[in-house]
């Protein structure tokens, strides 16, 4: 274990914000795991189990004020007990958040202080420029620097053309085509993975995020232990962390919340992403056709004659279910507000886009 705080991402920004606390008998640490308001905090004294103080709770105005994975927090360590009291969260350089459904809907931070976010998109049939645009908006809003990672290059025959297409919607954003399976192009990611640099991944399910993380982490990654043989169960007490060091010295954040962000981005872009299916559906005999076994279903017809791929239809259905699930969970009013915000941002993006 490395207790040198620079190795965990400490830098001048955080040092400046910590200055007012320096007189007091406190130190700092970085949140590497959150579990029901209990936090694993990496500190110069090693890893401690932290809880926020009563005063913290009293002054917190909402969920977003609480520590999240990646945050730097001001603590009083109790080293013998391996515990810590958390007094404050230092200002974040970036944050990814989602709306959390509780008694009210609040902003919940799913990752903080990410330097670089890899926007992972697969180069096979799933390739979609509109989706890349939406991920870019998300990244820019977060404060992290976006880097576009085009995965599964081994499944694509015209990588250069695809890269050129992405360049046209992502001017000035670094683009890297890789194959995590073959190990191609991984060297190009090294500059973002230097010691103390924090990265996170965003991308739809199945684009190869886990495969890439495992590659970057080498064989010893905790997450990999999730894939273990049945008889091995229970013996493995590997310490799972949502922020962990890669062999390169880079810091990777992989939280469940970050993985779920794909659902939020999908909301407004749903029609765009699947406009081929939506267009087909307009030709269905019934307006409210569920494309299951209704007579005169144009989607089923396209599936039957092969003009629509089964896998694509399946992911359409999956996304639809996920969105429906989210819609049920969510406060309708807040959702409307969020949609409006998105509309404004996408409009602005459209106007900002250079003519092609
Ligand atoms: N051909 C090829 N397949 C890949 C590559 N990277 C990942 N895959 C495959 O794509 C599938 C999905 O990969 P995952 O790494 O689980 O994708 P993920 O983005 O983590 O998916 P979620 O966990 O659902 O978010 C797996 O079957 C991988 O073996 C690649 O570079 N080339
Ligand atoms: Zn139909």
From TrEMBL:
Transmembrane segments: none annotated. It comes from Brevibacillus aydinogluensis. Monomer. Associates with 30S ribosomal subunit, binds 16S rRNA. The keyword Transcription does not apply. InterPro entries: G_CP_dom (IPR030378), NA-bd_OB-fold (IPR012340), P-loop_NTPase (IPR027417), Ribosome_biogen_GTPase_RsgA (IPR004881), RsgA_GTPase_dom (IPR010914). This is Small ribosomal subunit biogenesis GTPase RsgA. PANTHER family: SMALL RIBOSOMAL SUBUNIT BIOGENESIS GTPASE RSGA (PTHR32120). GO terms for molecular function: GTP binding; GTPase activity; metal ion binding; rRNA binding.
């Amino acid at each position: 274990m490395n207790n040198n705080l620079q190795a965990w991402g400490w830098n001048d920004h955080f040092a400046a914000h910590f200055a007012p606390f320096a007189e007091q008998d406190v130190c700092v640490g970085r949140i590497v795991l959150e579990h029901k308001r209990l936090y694993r905090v990496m500190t110069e004294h090693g890893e401690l189990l932290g809880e926020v103080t009563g005063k913290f709770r009293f002054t917190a105005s909402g969920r977003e004020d609480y520590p999240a994975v990646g945050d730097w927090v001001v603590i009083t360590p109790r080293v013998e007990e391996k515990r810590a009291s958390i007094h404050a969260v230092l200002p974040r350089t970036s944050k990814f958040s989602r709306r959390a459904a509780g008694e009210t809907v609040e902003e919940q931070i799913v990752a903080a202080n990410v330097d670089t976010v890899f926007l992972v998109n697969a180069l096979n049939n799933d390739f979609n420029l509109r989706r890349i645009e939406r991920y870019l908006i998300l990244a820019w809003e977060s404060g992290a620097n976006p880097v576009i990672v085009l995965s599964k290059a081994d499944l694509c025959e015209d990588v250069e053309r695809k890269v050129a297409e992405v360049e046209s919607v992502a001017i000035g954003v670094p683009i890297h085509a890789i194959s995590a399976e073959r190990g191609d192009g991984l060297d190009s990611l090294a500059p973002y993975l230097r010691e103390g640099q924090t990265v996170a991944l965003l991308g739809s399910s199945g684009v190869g995020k886990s495969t890439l993380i495992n590659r970057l982490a080498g064989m010893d990654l905790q997450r990999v232990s999730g894939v273990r043989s049945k008889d091995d169960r229970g013996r493995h007490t590997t310490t799972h962390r949502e922020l962990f060091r890669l062999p390169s010295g880079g810091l990777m954040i992989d939280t469940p919340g970050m993985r779920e962000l794909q659902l939020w981005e999908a909301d407004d872009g749903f029609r765009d992403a699947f406009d081929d299916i939506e267009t087909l559906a307009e030709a269905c005999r019934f307006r409210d056709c569920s494309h299951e076994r209704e007579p005169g279903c144009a989607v089923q017809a396209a599936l039957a004659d092969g003009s629509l791929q089964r896998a694509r239809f399946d992911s359409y259905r999956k996304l639809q279910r996920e969105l429906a699930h989210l819609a049920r969970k969510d406060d309708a009013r807040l959702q409307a507000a969020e949609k409006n915000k998105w509309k404004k941002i996408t409009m602005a993006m459209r106007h900002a886009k250079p003519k092609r």
